Structure formats: structure tokens, C-alpha cells
């Protein structure tokens, strides 16, 4: 999608928020900055010197649907509101207001599959639930990878870690 189209979607996200009386900042840069290095983050709201700049993953801009891009932009626009730098109760209330009014699915976090884009990040470890079989990919060592016994799956099951096979064995080249 073109820069102009992405910028128009930002304007739309701002207008939608204002229409349901979400007090978005008046100091939002009208141009979305595309981030070509982002691998795990779809969007970001950067505050500098009283201005808010919205960043969007270039991968999402290239592969995502209009609805997915609008949803991420709306998520970031909510961060421009007073008291909404995090995903606290105020931010969640505004997100729920927009979700109800427009049928969006603004959440604290999103996934590649939920946004309809391909996840081709390398996987070095798989965290596996013994109860439900859920497989959670991880690229780097982390406390979860090093000590899975300290954590539980969302279903309550115990977790274990497997090293991923080399990419050639995974069917990828």
C-alpha cells in the first residue's frame, strides 16, 4: 500500500476515535512512519517534544488488509490519549468503545495470524504445553526458555522446551 493510503487510514482512525468521543491528542504527526526493521511489533506510538508519531511495520503495510492496518493504527492512536501510554484501564475503555462502535478488534497485543500476515521469523525453540499441545515459538533464549517449569500455559498445563530443527529439516530453505 502507498504512503498516502496509509496516511489516509491514520486520518480515518483518528476521525473514528473522535466520533466516539475518545480524546486523542491534537499533536499527532499526519504521516505514518514505516519501520522496515520491526520483526515482532506491528505498530508503535512515539512521543517526542509534545508530538506523537505513529510507526507501522512495513511488513504489515505490505501484506496486511485495510482492516488489519486500521486496527493497528487505531490501537496506536489510543496511546496518544492522556493517561494511555500503557494498556491500562483508561486505554482498555477507549479500545472497548471503538470495538463496540465499529466492530474492530483492538487488543493489547496481536498476532501475525490474527492480522492475516505471514510469520517467517526463525524459530530456535518451541515451548510446548503438556496438557493442550500448544506450541509457542521463540527466537531467543529467555526466562521462559531457560526455566519453563516456572510458567504455565493459558490452559494451566506444564511447559517444556524443545530445540527447533534446522530450517532445512523444517521444510524451509
What do you see in this structure?
The protein has two domains: 3-115, Zincin-like, CATH 3.30.2010; 125-163, no CATH class. A hairpin with a 2-residue loop joins β2 (43-48) and β3. It has 173 residues and is α+β, with helices and mostly antiparallel strands. The protein is globular. The protein has six helices and six strands; from the N terminus they run αβββααααββαβ. A three-stranded mixed beta sheet has the order 1-3-2. A three-stranded antiparallel beta sheet has the order 5-4-6.
Categorize the overall geometry: globular
CATH arch. level architecture of the largest domain: 2-Layer Sandwich
CATH homologous superfamily label of the largest domain: Metalloproteases ("zincins"), catalytic domain
Largest sheet: 3 strands, mixed
Oligomer: single chain
Weakly predicted, low-confidence segments: 169-173
Number of DSSP E strands: 6
| Helical run tally | 6
- What Rg, in angstroms, do the CA atoms define? 18 Å
Strand arrangement across the biggest beta sheet: 1-3-2
Provide the β-strand percentage band.
Answer: 15-25%
CATH hierarchy class name of the largest domain: Alpha Beta
| String of helices and strands | HEEEHHHHEEHE
Structure summary:
The chain is of the alpha+beta class and 173 residues long.
Write the layout of secondary structure elements.
Layout: H1 3-19, E1 33-35, E2 43-48, E3 51-57, H2 58-63, H3 66-78, H4 89-102, H5 112-115, E4 125-129, E5 135-138, H6 143-146, E6 159-163
Parallel strand pairs: 1-3
Antiparallel strand pairs: 2-3, 4-5, 4-6
Helix pairs in contact: 1-3
